[in-house]
Amino acid sequence: MMRLLRGFALIRAFGLLILFLLGPAAHASSASVIFCASYQVAYTGNTAHDDYITSNGDQLARGAKIKVTRNSDSSVISNAYSNSATGCSSSITLDTGESYTVKIIADALINGNTIQVKNTDGTAIWSSTALGSYTPPSGGENKAIVTGTHAAWNVAAAAGWAIYHQPGGLTSQTLTFWTGEAGNDFQENAGDQYSDIHNDEDKYKVGHEMGHQMSFLFNGKTADTNTLNYGADANGCPALAGGHDLNSKEYQKAAAMEGFASFYAELAFNDDSSNSDCYYHHSGEDWNLDSVVNSSDASDPSCDLGPYAYPGATSPIDPYDYLGDYCLTSGVSNNRATQYDYMRFLWDLHVKSGGGVVPLTLSEIGDVWDASDPEGWDKTGSASNTTAGNPAYELRQAAVGLSYTTSWDNWDDLDGVQR
């Protein structure tokens, strides 16, 4: 009996030894992985003069959430914002014996602000499965991941870059975009705001609608942009009932609101350290007012040289005060402006210096905007620029109150927005 027990003990010990020796091989090791995310984009609105997002190469998914889920039990291992400068996650510890699904989510944290890109009714944030069955190598790695092609990633890349490059001093704000919409417009609802995006392939249109959100946020979410009146008397310039162009004659409030939005777009994708290196992609304007939109009309008007001063132009258009040069041969001038003139004015105010003129930062322009009380501006009427309620009057009074008089007065008359 003792011999038999001794044999069982030996067998048991031998079995334990085998289990001990096999144990490490039965359990996979852990590995540290960093995921670096990019958006796959397809823009048609780039210009030859752009300084940022100049091609359709993959764009960094700045600050985007990267979600890692273990496939065996659906456990979420990580769901965190990437670095806004690199698009890379922090180091994530994964098991080399497991497979994972890795998603890029259109929810980004950049310069303390959140960018979210949602579906057509705003009920869901877009995401893209970059890896469906990822198994990390034993030594770990830095793994590049990229979204598929979709409207959401055009919007996320453009808006993410804009708030990274030009946050304007905003923090703790959420800017939201709905894709696949029937048109491009700005909406405000119960104190919040979002942009409807139709032309997601044009980063300038994304930037323009984002500019409406920026002005809304600068003014404490009370900009009253849903009820603008565009159709002022034409007097030779386009005046569109319910619509607008860069060179359409409009009431000051509409022109200023739209001009600010376009200014933000040009600021986002152009280098503001140079006076002249700035263009804004916007085709379809009959700049020379010959009733035909053709190659003689600039589709990429220059911020500095004007809309019609470029190589090949048959005759230049004065880059300053388009309204005064082309829209005031008759009719009303008080409380009238064009979006182009406001876009140009804000660019000059922000970029140009000399002769005692100090450029204003985007944050400082936002302060002027807020102090001028845009929700109280006259939407229509023909009050002069010396009358309270006239947007030009209210903006200048705000600039004076903030000690920006010299800079403001250097440009407002020249650029044609002081009426």
* Alpha carbon gap, first and last residue: 114 Å
Low-confidence stretches: 1-11, 13-26
SSE succession: HEEEEEEEEEHEEEHEHHEHHHH
How big a fraction of the residues is strand?
15-25%
Number of helical stretches of at least 4 residues: 9
**Biggest β-sheet strands, sense, barrel:** 8 strands, mixed
Structural class: alpha+beta
Count of DSSP strands: 14
Number of domains: 2
Mean pLDDT: 84
Topology:
Layout: H1 2-26, E1 30-40, E2 59-60, E3 64-70, E4 76-81, E5 92-95, E6 100-110, E7 113-118, E8 127-134, E9 141-149, H2 151-165, E10 174-179, E11 185-189, E12 192-197, H3 203-218, E13 250-251, H4 252-269, H5 322-326, E14 336-337, H6 339-351, H7 362-371, H8 391-401, H9 405-411
Parallel strand pairs: 1-9, 7-10, 10-12
Antiparallel strand pairs: 1-2, 1-5, 3-4, 3-6, 6-7, 6-8, 11-12, 13-14
Description:
This protein is an alpha+beta fold. The chain has two domains: 30-150, Immunoglobulin-like, CATH 2.60.40; 228-411, no CATH class. The protein is built from nine helices and 14 strands. Strand 3 (64-70) and strand 4 form a beta hairpin. Helix 4 (252-269) crosses helix 6 (339-351). It is elongated, with a radius of gyration of 28 Å. It starts with a helix and ends in an 8-residue tail after the last helix. 46% of the residues are buried.
